[in-house]
Write a structure and sequence with these properties.
The chain has 497 residues and is mostly helical. The chain has three domains: 1-41, no CATH class; 42-461, no CATH class; 466-496, no CATH class. The protein has helices at 4-7, 12-15, 17-22, 43-61, 63-69, 76-79, 85-92, 108-111, 121-133, 140-169, 178-182, 184-189, 195-210, 214-225, 235-245, 248-270, 282-293, 301-309, 316-337, 344-358, 367-377, 381-406, 416-442, 473-484, and strands at 271-274, 277-280, 487-490, 493-496. The strands form two sheets. A two-stranded antiparallel ribbon has the order 1-2. A hairpin with a 2-residue loop joins strand 3 and strand 4 (493-496). Helix 9 (121-133) packs across helix 10 (140-169), helix 10 runs parallel beside helix 13 (195-210) and helix 13 (195-210) packs antiparallel against helix 14 (214-225). 46% of the residues are buried. It comes from Streptomyces blastmyceticus. It is found in: Cell membrane. Pfam families: GT87.
């Protein structure tokens, strides 16, 4: 028998015209009396299985590189778009010889000039565990293949976590996470690097915040920041939203828990002691010094400007910092001045997108950071697929450009002008999605998540909370609502109609 809870689930094929059209491939939109969730095939399980299936297809897409591209074909891994850092760094960072990350210096003969592992501590641990699980014996090529499969299995588990957590974050909208499961850029980039580990921890942290478990949310965000830097940005939106809602105690709890989790993971690797006292370990600091010292690189707006103008942009760090500060202030002002308090996922997406758009480098797998946030912020199939198309074009563009630059006189691939166009497409696609999210914030009646009367399903303690501190138009709007008495009961709080 169908439960009342199942009747309340928002169904994309009813709400979204693109989803309805796409559903014709599997029989058309779901009927009003469909028994969804009444059997083992609940939305969360279906989405998790679809995500795993798409991940497997992404593994198949890497097939041209298994036996040849990663090892002997300098350009094959680019022309077939099957490049992955994983097999290269297994030997390139000394995992095949038992070198301990951050503690042991990598021999220059294999590292290509990188003396220590250039990844945060938890990602290094992830790589080390995969190396331990990789069977020994055989040729180095065979062990690199096995290491890639071990890492792929662990990253597949991360994919399932992301799908489940994202599906459960918005209680009434689990089907939105189907966009994550079906995202083509997600499948194509899932095994390029180890970013999915940090994305999974971030998705779990957002799920815990949506359930009001502020300590556990902070711990997971702190662990995610110990695997990749970007999850730390989520604390910014939480601060301004908690400020507007008068929930700063919840923010302090989460921020302190995040800092504590980050320190517990990092301190044992970070601090070393010798006769001269305590010092920061050089191996631990490598990620941070490398990020600071690296020049402008692939995919960034700075590379596009540099190539078009011939200016090397040696002060790129200053430009990046300035734009991040100005952009963050603008997002904070938007959060405090909007006519209705933005949803957590909306601001999180905007801030991470700002970081990606202004960064010195845009690696293809960085799209993984945005996919779950984009789905929670703007679960509109048309807009999401437009953005994904742009990201797939960039994914193909960078590999074709590397094939062109690495093929010598053959010039096999995409010339510089074509790659610049691919960068522009990526930037414009991301900006487009940012624009529609900003529009939803300024015109909350356009927000598809709020059409059913919801406030902030991913907001946790913010969901249904009244506004305490607002600025500009939001203050004037609230005064008008007080004057006209247009208030309705929202949960346990009085909220404007």
């Amino acid at each position: 028998m169908r439960s009342e809870r199942d009747d309340q689930l928002v169904r994309p094929t009813v709400e979204d015209e693109v989803a309805a059209a796409g559903s014709e491939l599997i029989g058309g939109p779901v009927g009003r009396r469909a028994l969804i969730g009444a059997s083992w095939w609940t939305p969360v399980r279906v989405i998790a299985l679809v995500a795993i299936g798409m991940f497997a297809l992404g593994m198949v897409q890497k097939m041209p590189c298994y036996d040849y591209g990663w090892f002997f074909g300098a350009t094959t891994q680019y022309t077939h778009a099957c490049y992955s850092d994983i097999p290269h760094l297994y030997s390139g960072r000394g995992f095949d010889t038992g070198i301990v990350p951050y503690f042991d210096r990598i021999p220059q003969a294999v590292s290509g000039g990188m003396d220590y592992l250039e990844y945060p501590v938890l990602t290094g641990l992830f790589m080390q565990v995969a190396a331990w699980l990789t069977p020994g014996g055989g040729t180095l090529q065979h062990r690199e293949q096995l290491n890639w499969f071990v890492n792929a299995g662990m990253l597949m588990a991360c994919t399932a976590v992301i799908a489940v957590c994202s599906a459960r974050t918005h209680r009434r909208r689990p089907w939105d996470a189907l966009l994550i499961a079906l995202a083509p850029a997600f499948a194509l980039t899932a095994t390029v690097n180890w970013d999915l580990f940090a994305v999974a921890l971030t998705a779990a942290g957002m799920l815990m915040w949506s359930r009001g478990r502020t300590v556990l949310a902070g711990i997971l965000i702190g662990l995610a920041a110990a695997a990749k830097l970007y999850p730390l940005l989520l604390l910014g939106p939480l601060f301004v939203l908690c400020l507007r809602a008068g929930r700063l105690r919840a923010f302090r709890t989460t921020a302190l828990a995040a800092a504590g989790a980050w320190l517990v993971v990092n301190l044992p690797v970070m601090i070393t002691h010798d006769a001269g006292g305590f010092h920061i370990r050089e191996g631990w600091a490598k990620f941070y010094t490398f990020s600071q010292e690296r020049p402008i690189d692939f995919g960034s707006i700075w590379l596009l400007i540099s190539q078009r103008t011939g200016n090397p942009l040696e002060n790129a760090n200053t430009y990046v910092t300035l734009l991040m500060i100005l952009g963050s202030l603008a997002i904070g002002a938007l959060a405090l001045c909007a006519p209705r308090r933005p949803r957590f996922a909306q601001l999180a997406f905007l801030l991470v997108a700002l970081f990606i758009l202004t960064n010195k480098v845009y690696s293809p797998q960085y799209v993984l950071w945005l996919v779950p946030l984009a789905v929670l912020a703007r679960p509109k199939w048309r807009d999401f697929l437009v953005w994904q198309a742009c990201e797939v074009l960039y994914f193909l563009g960078i590999w074709m450009y590397l094939a062109y630059t690495g093929s010598g006189d053959k010039h096999q691939g995409l010339p510089t002008e074509g790659y610049q166009l691919a960068i522009a497409v990526h930037l414009l696609g991301t900006l487009y999605l940012c624009a529609v999210v900003v529009r939803d914030i300024l015109l909350p009646e356009r927000d598809v998540v709020r059409r059913d009367g919801s406030d902030d399903p991913s907001g946790g303690v913010l969901d249904g909370a009244p506004d305490i501190f607002v600025l500009g138009s939001a203050r004037r709007s609230r005064r008008t609502q007080h004057a006209h008495g247009t208030y309705v009961q929202w949960g346990t709080e009085s909220r404007p109609q």
